[in-house]
UniProtKB/TrEMBL annotation, chains A, B:
Enzyme category, top tier: transferase
Name of this protein: Putative thymidine phosphorylase
E.C. number: 2.4.2.4
Gene Ontology biological-process entries: pyrimidine nucleobase metabolic process; pyrimidine nucleoside metabolic process
Gene Ontology CC annotation, any one: cytosol
Catalytic activity: thymidine + phosphate = 2-deoxy-alpha-D-ribose 1-phosphate + thymine
Length: 503, 503
């Protein structure tokens, strides 16, 4: 007889099954629990143990990997439940998701109010939506784009379902760049300058997701970035700023879930971008934020009109959420600095901080403009004086000393690694550099091994408008293995438009 | 060095991993092929062997289930590739899906022309879309519903990417009911009548997906329904009709993929319903089709307006595709006949065919109306004469003899099984039956074990408007195990509104 009250338990078994975020449970095909509860293969089930729960996809296997009465779990499910081998877990039918009715209403053109949005975002953050549901929600919010009110609801809901940091300061500075520009590694410079000016800037950054380097990847070649919250607090208390990897603190977890699906769909609406950026900043406890919006034909934002739309929405939603922001439209026509890849970008950053003669001027200029805007926004400088103050902080060595102090507090300053193999790409003919493609250059750096191989990437020798002679190196590909170098060079040979030279 | 030309092969290993349709490949976490090719966990990969290919999700496992250089496959992937253990398979990055750009355009409000729709449907049928992509396509076509042209494009594309049967007859009759009404088992009766009248009606039916019985489930209690195409042709040549399970012939495979996602989303737009129904009929080689549209508060179509919209779209798209159809709006206010469940419905069908005194009159009437409409549509009867001709075919035993002949040709007529345990549900008080809920009754039959337990289900003793005494049986629940009977009765006790009695 089926027991109608208590769902039966099974023994947990760790399979070392790597699935990224997919929670999967494997059961024996003759398992009595599956039969009595009516769990068919590919059913969604709710696993629970020790007060934690996770939605998982159930598959059945007949080859003896798991015994009847056992549940073999993927690492994602194992970690989220915090299990030990042999622990008892409950397997139930998942509860009906009330919030899905609001997703269906949204598909049919109805707007979402604050309560409906919160219900959806809470279930998203809790991992209760399958890919089918997540995709439907995002598609519906793209087919009929989120209106201004909905973006505010979404932003607030994403903050509400995660952790929210507090820093005990009235002014907490932050910056964000709306992606897509290789080598745009201003963050370490801005943090050093702003903290040297006495402001609080507890910066968390991401690792690369689709790009050849994220700020966390670059900083990892210089110091320890895997700070837990207590260490992050100590560093910020002592130095005013930090340069930490954001993965260790759970800010806006719903955003992480949604971004994964947006990437698969390759749809990226303004409303979702705004909610994603601002929710992370609010959750990080920031009060004053400078937003860098690079515009260029191969950048994420491609036109001045698009930049104006994004800026207007960011500003309006930030205001509604009590956040002070300034949007800077910047040149996104070509990569910033010389290096593309973690260690190569770190070297550009060090050169600027140390005032080295070869330091890339464009990276320095951008960092000073952003840091200057932050100093003005936070009331540290009069309007129009920020950039000069930032320049001065760099010139007199205060920013460099602050950067060293932050790295020391995080665990010590390191020297970035150098590649073991490299090869230049030469101009086929003389002429003027007339085009530089951010996307293909980023792809080249990734094929060379970035960001996993820290020293891998691309070193640019020319910029838009430069005159080159035939046979002159346009760039150098750096790698850590001959195979990857060959693979990258093969791609470069097939994509000569990545740097166009007009005869 | 990475070999840039030929992708490396791995040895196939059958895991007996049951995932329904999910193609999954498990590789060792230290597999050199994954490393050199850059296949990370949860990557989509293209598997190929012997000229066949399948898109699969790759997971990595560290516990020795598969060795480095091996690829462990789910049954879905194994069957589609037609493998033997140890076969070499290729694992590659999947090709870029051009058709996704049209899905993105559709999300942003652009209409799909015939070429764009065909590209999408071809990739869907080939299993190249992930759940994220499928959900986005369906959501986009619901948020901005398919227009008349798009439904035609979708219908034709779904036919084009699958098999299409031909019967060598100018008139090939078919029928379809727009689901949702328990016990509405007219198909065996219609086939017997229409074939007895000398028309060709090669009927393929589905098994239950969310309902307690599909026509294939019911017919399986009476004869063999798993006909391959040669046997199906022999039966139809000999008897004019057949009653086969459609799963053995691949008609409109894209529809099967899309329906799975629509069910998860629980969205069901008119355009998708029309394309789904008509593509299956065209692919089956039908030329004249009667469509039964039950309307009622707990049926799939809930109002006359909705029925009119569905009818208009079915008629317009059928005409554009060269198919002659007639739509019959029928009463969907309560289940049809007495039985709900495979064997119980089979007994109703037999009673009608044999002219038994206890035969349910409503089932007989509906079948004659549909068969009559088919006889008129196919030109076998004058307008207005069809129903009477159908009645006559039943009354004089021709339909019964034809049914027996079809079953014999398919492998022999069987007697439907009887349940081993059953229990009546009694009226709590005297009164008039004022409401019968199709949805809760269907659920009750499923909890009792239908359709897997062929004899399980619900036997109704009353109909809307009947007067009942206190303690009189309203229905009997049939099951094959006491546990399931208890489970079903528990549900019935908690849902007294499934049959409302007004005092």
């Amino acid at each position: 007889m089926t027991n109608l009250t208590a769902p039966p338990t099974v023994r947990a078994r760790r399979l070392k099954l790597l699935t990224q975020h997919d929670a999967i449970v494997l059961m024996h095909e003759d398992c009595a629990v599956c039969r009595s509860e009516g769990h068919a293969p590919r059913a969604q089930v709710m696993l629970s143990a020790g007060g934690r729960e996770v939605m998982a996809t159930l598959y059945q296997i007949g080859n003896g990997l798991v015994a009847p009465g056992e549940a073999g779990l993927s690492e994602a499910a194992w970690q989220r439940l915090g299990l030990d081998d042999g622990d008892e877990i409950l397997i139930r039918h998942p509860p009906a998701l009330e919030s899905l009715s609001n997703v269906r209403r949204r598909i049919h053109g109805r707007r979402l109010d604050a309560g409906a949005m919160t219900g959806i975002v809470r279930d998203v953050a809790a991992g209760r939506y399958t890919d089918v549901h997540l995709s439907a929600f995002l598609t519906a919010c793209s087919a009929l784009p989120l209106d201004a009110e909905e973006v505010i609801h979404l932003t607030r809901a994403m903050v509400d379902v995660g952790e929210r940091l507090e820093w005990g300061a009235d002014v907490v500075v932050d910056k964000h760049s709306v992606g897509g520009l290789p080598g745009n590694r201003t963050t370490p410079l801005v943090v050093a300058i702003v903290a040297a000016q006495g402001l609080v800037i507890p910066k968390t950054s991401s690792r690369a997701i689709t790009s050849p380097a994220g700020t966390a990847d670059t900083m990892e070649t210089l110091t320890n970035v895997a700070l837990d919250l207590p260490l992050m607090r100590r560093v910020v208390e002592q130095e005013g700023g930090c340069l930490a990897w954001g993965g260790a603190v759970q800010l806006s977890p719903a955003d992480d879930v949604l971004i994964r699906i947006e990437r698969v769909l390759d749809i990226d609406t303004v409303g979702q971008l705004v909610a994603s950026v601002l929710s992370k900043k609010i959750a990080a406890g920031s009060t004053h934020v400078v937003l860098d919006i690079p515009v260029g034909p191969t950048a994420k934002v491609r036109s001045d009109d698009e930049a104006a739309t994004v800026s207007a929405s960011l500003t309006a939603v930030a205001e509604a959420c009590g956040l002070k922001v300034v949007c800077l439209q910047t040149d996104g026509g070509q990569p910033v600095g010389r290096g593309i890849g973690p260690a190569l970008e770190a070297r550009d950053v060090l050169a600027v901080l140390q005032g080295a003669p070869e330091a890339p001027a464009d990276l320095r200029r951008r960092a000073c403009r952003i840091a200057g805007a932050a100093l003005e926004l936070a009331g540290r400088c009069e309007p129009g004086q920020g950039t000069a103050a930032a320049e001065e902080t760099l010139r007199d060595g205060r920013a460099w000393r602050k950067f060293v102090a932050i790295c020391e507090a995080q665990g010590g300053l390191k020297t970035p690694p150098r590649s073991t193999v490299s090869r230049p790409l030469l101009a086929r003919h003389a002429g003027r550099v007339s085009g530089v493609n951010n996307r293909t250059l980023a792809r080249l750096a990734k094929l060379a091994g970035a960001p996993d191989d820290k020293a891998a990437g691309v070193e640019l020798h020319v910029r838009l408008g430069d005159e080159v002679a035939a046979g002159e190196p346009l760039l150098t590909v750096h790698a850590e293995a001959p195979g990857e170098l060959a693979y990258a060079l093969d791609y470069a040979g097939a994509n000569p438009e990545m740097i166009s030279v007009e005869a």
